[in-house]
Design a protein that fits this description.
Helix content: 25-40%
Shape: globular
Number of helices: 31
Structural class: alpha/beta
Number of domains: 5
CATH topology of the largest domain: Rossmann fold
CATH superfamily of the largest domain: Vaccinia Virus protein VP39
Number of strands: 32
Radius of gyration: 30 Å
Largest sheet: 9 strands, mixed
Distance between the termini: 77 Å
CATH class of the largest domain: Alpha Beta
Length: 950
């Protein structure tokens, strides 16, 4: 049935509330704008209503909400709710937990979609909403933008309303789906179950599982096919649900699954072993077999030579490559936004063509516009932003110079952030928001994974290649296209490097040691690559730059990975790009016609040469040092630092200057400082885990809101001092970004752990020094930020220690101190008494020791620090505010806030000033600390002050 409507229509498509919310705008049948909400909110896989994406689409077209003729939603929520309810009833009462977990969102939003749509789109739209079925939206997104007049259509994902896969045919301006597979039997959920089991995030980590698969052997294939699935010749299957838990529980797999595969699911912070690699290889093999069987059956059913694919499983580019090579279909087109985000474009195109009956043009290539449908920034906007953050940059005048500069940087082995033109729609960076590098360098894959993306080292990178040269490097026909990075193919024989006979004995991650081709950084361990072809028609500037690189190197290929850090969405704005550039080891940022070089940033030090270590130490640390005994300058003499005034010599042990100097009050071995120093030398803070990397350090640090907000607040190019840094984990974390960080402690054993990690991970902007905070071994006014968390209350004179640090702070600099609160330590003191009376037994009364997830070493360290520490003082808010006032510091904020209506972590920045509250406010907050469940370390509070300019 055709709905009557205007011949000229503005149609907005929306996907929301499940995974990767998005909006897409179709005007007169043309897809003019589309974007995911995550790009604007910076929340990865944001499922909220895509308010900002809608605003962008309307702004791009110069429309208001009142100008829209139709708004379509990509699925039918009432059908989805019926599936949720029926599933609960089928598994009752076991499914109650998952049902109750989902119910609040349904009652608040999903059952009231017209209301939510009107609220999200804004005032002015008073016409009808249209709801299509989930897989119908996927099918429309696959067929209508494709270059085919007629094609078979296949959609595969986790689940829509009831369907988990569907197929049919598209002709002209109509699609017809004839068959479907229904929940709970789902290739997408099957793959997600293994994603979960191998320790990756569901609906986000599936591509990691696909990248891990080539390191293993498919040893569990038969187990999957005999125990988990009943797979038919046409690709349909039924799953044995006794192994899975996603219908009735809050996890993907159950105890029977764990027993079948040899243990519980891997935790995200645990090492990946060969078993996980073999499991990944096995489920990948089974998934490819399912995809191939369905494709062959679909070809037999339709007789079409063309195939269109969409749905989350269509992002499995290895499976897509096998369909291309091994199925009877001659031509394949895959929607680049194949996941839920693509449903927004699908429903809008479905309304225009199928419901309104408008003709569909067919063009060579496709109608997706290279999927460059997102926001674009002019040079004027980029320049204004860079000026506002006082970035060190230069502007080049024309495209030719920009391409020349970029190609030179890439040929020199530098990693380049490329921010040009309209942002990509879909999960892949396709050359508009990309990180680029030279693929000929064998170490480039490791470098980008470790120091740029901060992710697992096994992850492969995709190549971009000039379309006319692609067949020289990859197993593609001359001029064959792969414009959306959705097909995996083999590296061409001519580009391969024969391996030594003994290399076959290497297993798992060891395979990364081998150089397999002339473009090793984009050659996976199975000699495959996820290829993107580019040309001047789709990517004018990028193609021009790659041609320049080819002229300089003879190589028409580059590494192309998404411009983001591992935990962030792809960058959207100039601010996003700048922050990512400054937070990683990207060497050059090309943003419009502006070029930023990391080596020119004030805090820069090179991490590329160990031979430069002494020079780097001078820049980060030695130039800031002063003799702790008399405050004069120190000079390097061999392996010692010598005071220029009194000639006192200080050792440098394991790269750590030993500048601890006793203060005047120390008279005997019973002094607090000596007792505390001896305590931490005997019981240092727990070491980093054996498998810790920058990735795991970042994950651990960002899991705590305070550390994450601190990282966000401290400006780039600033100098940071952490006093009492322990093993230096916070110092190392903060030094990953472009800042210079000095960590100090009086415990040399702890500092050695931090220094060993720093060296192993090549953190060039961090240094450690042993010193007494009462006799700082640092020159005055050297630091923009001083951090002193949890140290002062272990000294004999907390106020004196605080005042000894203030001269090190620059004018307008910030100091952050953490102390124990007089009120909040009440229960800790009672537990300490109980442990003293019971000889350390009954440790279950401590909430941390009672919890799970801590190693024995960390439990011991926590118990010692909280209950056996030789000295501890307690303070209240008013006392610390007096310290600030007496030393001419402006109060910025407290954590918790000094008022009951705030937690202290809200606002744009931790360095954004908040009211200090009154005495009654302080009393209420401090009394609340006694029973606050969020206070894991009883009564700990933070105060932030700002040094007045003087």
């Amino acid at each position: 049935m055709v709905v009557s409507g205007p011949m000229n229509s503005a149609i907005l498509g929306v996907s929301a509330f499940y995974h990767d919310s998005a909006a897409a705008l179709v005007i007169n049948g043309e897809l003019v704008a589309a974007a995911q909400e995550e790009r604007f909110t910076r929340k990865k896989h944001d499922a909220s209503f895509p308010t900002r994406a809608v605003e962008y689409c309307l702004r791009e077209a110069g429309l208001a909400a009142s100008d829209l003729d139709y708004v379509g939603f990509y699925e039918k929520p009432l059908l989805t709710y019926s599936r949720l309810l029926e599933t609960y009833l089928a598994y009752s009462p076991r499914g109650l937990g998952s049902y109750l977990a989902a119910l609040p969102l349904w009652l608040k939003q999903k059952l009231h979609l017209p209301r939510e749509l009107r609220r999200g789109i804004g005032s002015g739209f008073d016409r009808r909403f249209i709801f299509s079925e989930h897989h119908e939206s996927h099918a429309a997104s696959a067929f209508f933008p494709s270059p085919f007049e007629e094609a078979a259509i296949l959609t595969l994902d986790g689940v829509g309303e009831w369907a988990t896969a569907s197929y049919g045919i598209g002709r002209g301006n109509r699609i017809e789906l004839s068959h479907e597979l229904r929940f709970p039997h789902s290739v997408g959920l099957l793959y997600s179950a293994f994603t979960y089991y191998c320790g990756f995030d569901v609906n986000g980590g599936e591509y990691k599982l696909m990248g891990l698969a080539p390191y293993g052997e498919p040893r569990y294939t038969d187990v999957i096919l005999t125990k988990l699935l009943d797979l038919k010749a046409d690709g349909s299957f039924r799953m044995d649900m006794s192994y899975f838990n996603y219908c009735q529980g809050l996890t993907m797999t159950g105890p029977a699954f764990d027993e079948l595969f040899g243990g519980p699911p891997r935790k995200s912070n645990e090492p990946i072993d060969t078993r996980h690699m073999d499991i990944a290889a096995s489920i990948q093999h089974v998934t490819e077999e399912i995809m191939l069987r369905i494709a062959r059956h679909l070809h037999a059913e339709t007789g079409s030579k063309n195939l269109c694919l969409a749905g989350g499983v269509a992002l499995n580019c290895v499976g897509n490559g096998r369909i291309q090579r091994e199925s009877p279909f001659e031509n394949i087109w895959i929607q680049p936004a194949s996941g839920d985000a693509g449903g927004a474009a699908g429903v809008a195109l479905l309304i225009w063509h199928q419901l309104l009956g408008n003709e569909r043009p067919v063009r060579s290539g496709d109608l997706q516009k290279a999927s460059l449908l997102g926001v674009e920034y002019r040079d004027e906007e980029i320049g204004e932003f860079l000026s506002g953050v006082e970035a060190t940059c230069r502007r080049v005048e024309d495209d030719s110079t920009l391409c020349e500069v970029t190609a030179d940087a890439l040929a020199e082995g530098k990693v380049v952030g490329w921010f040009q033109g309209r942002m990509e729609y879909g999960p892949r960076a396709l050359g508009s928001r990309s990180i680029l590098a030279d693929p000929r360098r064998a170490d480039m894959q490791s470098t980008i994974n470790r120091k740029v993306k901060f992710r697992e080292g096994f992850r492969p990178f995709a190549p971009i290649v000039l379309r006319e040269r692609a067949h020289e490097y990859f197993e593609l026909e001359p001029h064959q296209e792969s414009p959306y990075m959705l097909l995996v193919t083999g590296v061409a024989e001519e580009a391969r490097i024969p391996l030594a006979s003994d290399s076959k004995s290497l297993e798992g991650i060891e395979k990364l040691q081998l150089t397999r081709s002339t473009i090793p950084a984009v050659t996976h361990v199975d000699l495959s690559a996820r290829v993107q072809t580019i040309d001047r028609e789709r990517h004018r500037l990028l193609s021009q730059m790659l041609e320049k690189f080819d002229e300089k190197t003879g190589c028409p290929v580059l590494v192309n990975t998404s411009f983001n850090l591992g935990w962030d969405p792809i960058v959207c704005t100039p601010a996003d790009a700048y922050e990512t550039f400054m937070s990683s080891d990207i060497d050059v940022l090309c943003m419009g016609h502006y070029v930023l070089e990391k080596r020119l940033q004030p805090a820069y030090t090179s991490s590329r040469s160990a031979a430069q270590d002494l020079a780097q130490s001078a820049g980060v640390l030695y130039d800031r040092l002063a003799s702790p005994c008399c405050g004069e300058s120190l000079v390097t003499q061999g392996a010692k630092l010598v005071c220029e005034s009194c000639q006192h010599a200080f050792d440098i042990t394991d790269g750590i200057p030993q500048l601890f100097w006793p203060h005047d009050e120390i008279t005997d071995a019973g002094d607090v400082t000596e007792m505390v120093k001896a305590f931490y030398e005997d019981a240092p803070f727990p070491n980093y885990n054996d498998h810790d990397s920058l990735s795991t350090l970042i994950e651990k640090s960002r899991s705590g809101l305070y550390a994450r907000r601190l990282d966000e607040a401290i400006p780039y190019n600033s100098s940071v001092l952490e006093v009492g840094c322990g093993t230096g984990q916070l110092a190392n974390f903060l030094g990953i970004s472009c800042r210079q960080v000095v960590g100090t402690d009086m415990c040399l054993n702890s500092l050695r752990l931090g220094e060993a990690f720093r060296r192993e991970q090549e953190l060039s902007r961090v240094r450690f020094v042993q010193m007494n905070l009462f006799r700082p071994a640092l020159a005055k006014q050297q630091f923009d930020v001083i951090l002193c968390n949890g140290v002062l209350h272990h000294t004999a004179d907390p106020k004196g220690g605080f005042e000894s640090l203030l001269p090190l702070l620059k004018p307008n600099g910030h100091i952050v101190i953490g102390l124990y609160n007089t009120y909040g330590r009440l229960f800790t003191d009672l537990r300490r008494l109980a442990f003293r009376l019971t000889g350390g037994r009954a440790r279950w009364i401590d909430p941390i020791l009672r919890g799970s997830g801590l190693s024995d070493e960390r439990r011991r360290a926590w118990f010692s620090d909280q209950y056996r520490h030789p000295h501890e003082s307690k303070h209240d808010f008013g006392e610390v505010l007096d310290w600030f006032d007496q030393n001419e510091l402006d109060f910025v904020r407290g954590i918790p806030a000094l008022r009951p209506d705030d937690d202290g972590l809200a606002g744009e920045s931790l360095f954004e000033a908040q009211p200090r509250g009154g005495a009654l406010d302080h009393f209420a907050v401090q009394v609340g600390q006694i029973v606050d469940p969020a206070q894991k370390e009883g009564g700990f509070f933070v105060m932030i002050g700002k040094n007045r300019s003087r």
